[in-house]
Amino acid sequence: MATYAIGDVQGCYDALQRLLQQIHFDPKSDQLWLVGDLVNRGPDSLGTLRFIKSLGATAYPILGNHDLFLLAAAEGIVSLRPKDTIQDVLTADDRADLIEWLRHIPLHHRNRPFLMVHAGLLPQWTADETVGYAREVETMLSGSDYRTFLQQLFHGPTTPWSPSLNRMERLTSIARVLTRIRTCTQSGELSSFSGPPENSPAGHMPWFRTPDRRSADAIIITGHWAALGLQLEDNHFAIDSGCVWGRQLTAVRLEDRAVFQVEYSES
């Protein structure tokens, strides 16, 4: 049995299939951890979702910002932008089943010593606290009031994290951290920066470089930051190697940190 963490697929279905062939993936014994952003910007979001859904209990996907955008688009909360490639999901015969399944996908996966989230954590959050925060959002997304949450997430004010926030502000703040953070201040103020880490805005640094980060005792697995690229450290695996940007799709075997990669393909 082997466990593979796979970077942002973003609808690159062909690359995902070639990567699974390379690692000789056996759904009867192996596990796939998918770090979020399953859809969007790549050529086959629909095929990607259908395939991951078909894997059942052998796959552990989590939600990224593009997956949340798809949920919001399905509710008419956001409009598609020129570069979005999720129309195939929105017009599919099985759209309702896929959206319902996506709403019940978590924002985290934990199996000690590993914790997988899409983007990262605030420096003041421990791994255990992060699991609890993620579960709050997961409960909302799978419940009856999820549309209100998505409306606030995409159109409400961007409120910095504080334990004293009201319920909806708290949930949207948690979701923004888990699915969007790249750089922050030591106190946890986020930026919208997406470039290479050496060009981080003044006063900001990569979230995993903040001094005295309280989650440093866990191995955090993240994607989201294509400009950072593949980076394996003692307590952080960054595995978004920019497949949808014409680079590679990456799998890391967690048992021995072996790296497997395939190149992007248009098909």
Describe it.
By secondary structure, the protein is of the alpha/beta class. The chain has one domain: Purple Acid Phosphatase, chain A, domain 2 (4-Layer Sandwich), CATH 3.60.21. It is built from 8 helices and 12 strands. The strands form 3 sheets. It has a 5-stranded mixed sheet with strand order 3-2-1-11-12, with helices on one face. Strand 2, helix 2 and strand 3 form a beta-alpha-beta unit.
Give the neighbour order of strands across the main sheet. Answer: 3-2-1-11-12
For this structure, the CATH topology is Purple Acid Phosphatase, chain A, domain 2
Backbone CA Rg = 17 Å
Question: Class by helix and strand content?
Answer: alpha/beta
Q: What general form does the structure show?
A: globular
Number of H- or I-type helical stretches: 8
How far apart are the termini? 30 Å
Total strand count, please? 12
CATH architecture: 4-Layer Sandwich
How many structural domains are formed by the residues? Answer: 1
